[in-house]
From TrEMBL:
Pfam families in the record: GrpE
Keywords, in A-Z order: Stress response
Origin species: Nocardiopsis flavescens
Protein name: Molecular chaperone GrpE (Heat shock protein)
Protein's GO biological process: protein folding
GO molecular function terms attached to this record: adenyl-nucleotide exchange factor activity; protein homodimerization activity; protein-folding chaperone binding
Taxonomic lineage of the native organism: Bacteria, Bacillati, Actinomycetota, Actinomycetes, Streptosporangiales
Keyword Calcium set for record: no
Record-linked InterPro entries: GrpE
Residues passing through the membrane, by range: none
Length: 185
């Protein structure tokens, strides 16, 4: 009995097995390419969505600036009306100021406040003036908030800093004619 050349030996795979193995390798490579392509498409889709969202926020920048200004004017007017004893009109103006805040929140802008005694932060506070205070522990802290700040709720970027007055330490007055220690003649 003779062995034909086409017959498989125990050491060599059958030609059909070689073809199937080659097809498996090709399918695995194609599958890997498809997964990579899907990952690239997903990344590009995500970047596109982020760019469109940023573009939408930029598109509304003038509206946001005007709503912030309107809120400030309405809140200031409400305070002035309260000072003159016109509570009914003051409540109406305060309601309109709240409506401006709601419109800002729908545009993705949130108000930022500060409390009395909060330390100064250059990225968050805009100092309007100082208030003299003999307590050194309160130096550089918020004395009074004049207007809230606003920040983008998505990016966290401060759109407008909190307008505030800050405490400034003022030591006790020196008696007239006394020189500071160590500076005598």
């Amino acid at each position: 009995m003779t062995v034909s050349d086409d017959a498989a030996t125990p050491d060599s795979p059958h030609p059909l097995e070689r073809v199937l193995s080659s097809l498996d390798d090709r399918l695995a490579a194609l599958d890997e390419r498809a997964r990579h392509r899907e990952a690239v498409i997903d990344r590009l889709h995500s970047e596109n969505r982020e760019l469109r969202a940023a573009q939408d926020r930029t598109l509304f920048d003038p509206v946001v600036a005007d709503l912030i200004r309107m809120h400030d004017q309405l809140a200031r007017e409400a305070g002035g009306l309260r000072g003159r004893g016109e509570e009914r009109l003051a409540e109406l103006m305060a309601g309109f100021a709240d409506d401006a805040l709601l419109a800002l929140e729908r545009l993705g802008v949130e108000p930022v406040g500060a409390g009395v005694g909060d330390p100064f932060r250059a990225d968050l506070h805009l100092p309007l003036s100082t208030v003299d205070d003999p307590d050194p522990a309160r130096d550089g802290t918020v004395a009074e908030v004049a207007a809230p700040g606003f920040r983008d709720a998505v990016t966290g970027r401060v759109r407008r800093r909190v307008h505030a007055r800050f405490f400034r330490h003022v030591g006790p007055a020196d008696p007239a004619g006394s020189a500071p220690p160590g500076k005598g003649t």
